[in-house]
TrEMBL record, chain A:
Protein family: Belongs to the CIA30 family.
Organism (species): Drosophila busckii
Transmembrane parts of this sequence: none
InterPro entries noted in UniProt: Galactose-bd-like_sf, NADH-UbQ_OxRdtase-assoc_prot30, NDUFAF1
GO CC terms, sorted: mitochondrion
UniProt KW keywords: Chaperone, Mitochondrion
Designated name of the protein: CG7598
Taxonomy of the source species: Eukaryota, Metazoa, Ecdysozoa, Arthropoda, Hexapoda
From TrEMBL, chain B:
Protein name (database record): Evolutionarily conserved signaling intermediate in Toll pathway, mitochondrial
Keywords: Cytoplasm, Immunity, Innate immunity, Mitochondrion, Nucleus, Transit peptide
Compositional bias segments (type: Basic and acidic residues): 35-46
Region of interest called Disordered, as start-end residue ranges on this chain: 31-61
Length: 294, 407
């Protein structure tokens, strides 16, 4: 009997089905898809519907494409970024702004009990609010939960081609927000081509003052640090500002901060500040071999 | 791709370790079963209702059944375990059990306790002797256990010190994975520890009044001239609630209040949430509608310099252009687009009556407030007076507006 049990244990080691693991499982050989197993299968529309939708989108895509070509032919890019001028990247007072953002929480995959929404506030700005909770189903796999997140949709060109933001001319992120005293995480996704780089996110903290007054936070891009899947990486590098694919905010119920949260956002802007000369805020000294990034 | 390679190697390393270590596992399992039976009998006699020992292999869990939950008992239990026998069997399970029950003993923020737990590990035994052992995570369970311990420290914001590095070096050697975790923590944690522009005491005080003071102070950093007053409603004759009010107001706000039209109402709005670390407090604002004419006039002053369609020639029949309204009023920081904020407060009971008392107390410095109509505009239901929320006699009314999220 024991022999059988042992055999099945050994078998189960090679079959990635439901089993009990005695050690930490590392399935990091390669990633099948970008969501790392969290992809929700949505029902696919019928072929007829796809054709109708495609034809309907064609008009808008053609218009976008025409704009792109015109811009290319005009060939009049902005060359001088005047110091002190804020170029607004995401304006929450613009029309149809809420459609550009995706809200996610840990409850989406049944792993937590947080909820969040993004809507327009009384003053017309975007209000990201809800409740984060660190409670979760005790299934023995999930250790800690409690987050809510908003993220922009992938930036794209005409005909649904993916592209990236190019913010190389700026060195400051400027946010006009009204928070509740919590600290939020600013996420700049720099999703790469290979599976290793799919989860590259540059983070920094947004401390909010709280209270009824608006707050303008200026954060240099040099302060952002690289992490992947929530872990700070040992090999850091300055953020590649021409490769930004998404922008987002996160809030967590860490350290007993379960409860309601609310972050009102007027705009997220970019600025070039010539007095800020720092390239990267963290040390880049040589590290011992076979210790770092293992 | 290079970043992946050590992971693959470690995967195989773990596999080899697991297969190799299966034989002794069975013996241990039998021990646990016997222990569990023992423990069940024990529990029946002791009538203890902890139940948390079920999920752990170490069936006799001294942390769950401890009567007195203090730091001293905790450290004594660690000491007893260390002195019980020379082999210190099940020390990984013991450390996991100890980590799990830290919060019950209130020691999760104590560095000394974490050090005591690391001290349970035998010194020198787990140091790899050749490069293969070093590369394939020598004694993976023990290493993972200490990595989890360090992670718990990180989650609780406990920063290690150099003594801990020496201890880890003695246990796992220069190439140990817990050491790598330790070095990462020592690199990043000091960088983030004092990053906040609004520093707070750690831990934050339990007293609601102290938290209210911290919250109002933090909100008033927007105007450096702000003054924070702690008012008592007992100073007023006909106040129903006997409580405190923390009020923040600056001379500039008093000035705005004086200039406010007596025909236009002021609003007391709230309750809004404010977080001070993991404590939440409600606050209220005294707000007027935005002075639209004034704000529009400010916008007019900002000429678009890029607009070249209307360039006035100053030589022909026109006076030279003058900056508009150069001696006009400047916009105050309190004049927001969606309203002018006159004052902020947090009260002990968050009731209508305490807010009314707040306005009356504000009237002493700002007599004009007596002539302006003040309206309540609440986001959620606010009781009229403290008696209504005092229903459970065990809970004092003062604690009603704060939600310690630990419960």
């Amino acid at each position: 009997m024991q022999c059988l049990v042992r055999q099945s244990q050994r078998l189960s080691y090679w079959l990635p089905a439901a089993q009990i693991h005695t050690t930490a499982v590392q399935r990091t050989f390669w990633e099948r898809e970008k969501k790392s197993g969290y992809k929700t299968k949505l029902p696919e529309p019928s072929k007829k519907q796809l054709i109708i939708d495609g034809l309907r989108d064609l008009k808008a895509e053609m218009k976008l494409w025409r704009e792109e070509v015109t811009e290319q032919l005009t060939s009049d890019p902005i060359l001088v970024f005047r110091p002190g001028e804020i170029d607004v990247a995401f304006d929450f007072k613009a029309p149809d702004v809420l459609e550009k953002w995706t809200v996610t929480t840990d409850a989406d995959h049944g792993e937590g009990k947080s909820n969040a929404t993004l809507e327009l506030s009384a003053s017309g700005a975007g209000l990201f609010h809800g409740e984060v909770s660190s409670q979760h189903t005790k299934d023995g796999i999930i250790k800690r939960t409690g987050y809510a997140n908003i993220r922009t949709k992938r930036v794209r060109k005409s005909f649904k081609r993916e592209t990236t933001y190019d913010w190389t001319q700026y060195n400051m992120l400027v946010l006009k927000v009204r928070g509740d005293g919590r600290s939020y995480l600013i996420n700049l996704h720099t999703e790469g081509y290979f599976d290793l780089m799919w989860n590259d996110i540059f983070h920094y903290v947004l401390y909010t003052r709280g209270g009824p007054h608006w707050q303008i936070a200026k954060i240099p891009f040099s302060k952002f640090f690289l992490s992947s899947k929530g872990r700070i990486q040992d090999r850091q590098s300055p953020i590649p500002l021409n490769c930004i694919t998404h922008f987002g905010f996160s809030v967590a119920a860490k350290k007993g901060m379960d409860g309601p949260f609310g972050l009102e956002i007027h705009y997220v802007g970019l600025e070039y500040d010539p007095s800020h000369q720092e390239e990267f805020a963290y040390e880049m000294y040589k590290t011992p071999k076979y210790i770092v990034a293992t | 791709m290079i970043r992946k390679l050590p992971c693959i190697l470690r995967f195989h390393g773990a596999a080899a370790q697991t297969l190799y270590r299966q034989q002794p596992n069975i013996i241990l399992t039998r021990n646990y079963a016997a222990d569990a039976k023992d423990n069940r009998n024990n529990e029946k006699t002791r009538q203890s209702s902890t139940g948390s020992s079920k999920s752990l292999p170490a069936a006799r869990n001294p942390f769950a059944i401890a009567q007195e939950k203090t730091k001293n008992t905790y450290l004594t239990m660690v000491e007893i375990f260390m002195e019980r026998d020379i082999h210190r069997r099940n020390h990984v399970e013991f450390i996991y059990a100890a980590l799990k029950h830290m919060a019950d003993f209130g020691v999760e923020h104590d560095l000394e306790v974490y050090k005591a737990l690391i001290n349970v590990m035998p010194k020198g035994k787990f140091i790899p002797k050749n490069i293969f052992q070093a590369e394939f995570m020598h004694y993976p369970k023990q290493q993972q256990c200490i990595i989890d311990l360090l992670e718990q420290m990180e989650d609780n914001g406990v920063m290690p010190d150099y003594e801990m590095e020496a201890m880890l070096l003695n246990v796992f050697g220069q190439r140990g994975h817990p050491l790598r975790k330790y070095w990462r923590m020592m690199y990043w944690m000091p960088k983030f520890k004092n990053l906040s522009p609004w520093p707070l005491p750690d831990p934050v005080p339990d007293d609601t009044l102290e938290i209210a003071k911290l919250a109002v102070e933090r909100m008033c950093t927007v105007d450096l001239r702000s003054k924070i007053d702690v008012l008592e409603t007992s100073e007023l004759k006909d106040a129903l609630d006997d409580t405190w009010i923390v009020s923040g107001m600056s001379p500039e706000q008093s000035k705005l209040l004086r200039e406010h039209s007596k025909q236009k109402a002021l609003y007391i709005e709230g309750p809004f949430n404010m977080w001070i670390r993991n404590r939440r407090i409600n606050y209220f604002t005294l707000r007027a509608d935005a002075d639209v004419d004034f704000l529009a006039q400010l916008d007019e002053r900002q000429l678009d310099e890029d607009d070249v369609t209307k360039i006035d020639v100053p030589f022909f029949g026109r006076a030279p252009p003058r900056r508009h309204n150069q001696l006009g009023k400047l916009r105050s920081v309190h004049q927001q687009d969606d309203g002018t904020i006159m004052a902020i407060c947090a009260t002990g009971t968050s009731t209508k009556d305490s807010l009314l008392s707040w306005i009356r107390l504000l009237e002493r410095g700002n007599p004009v407030l007596g002539e302006i109509p003040v309206l309540f505009r609440f986001l959620s239901a606010v009781p009229a007076k403290a008696e209504e929320i005092e229903a459970p006699s065990s809970v004092p009314a003062k604690a009603s507006d704060i939600n310690s999220s630990s419960n």
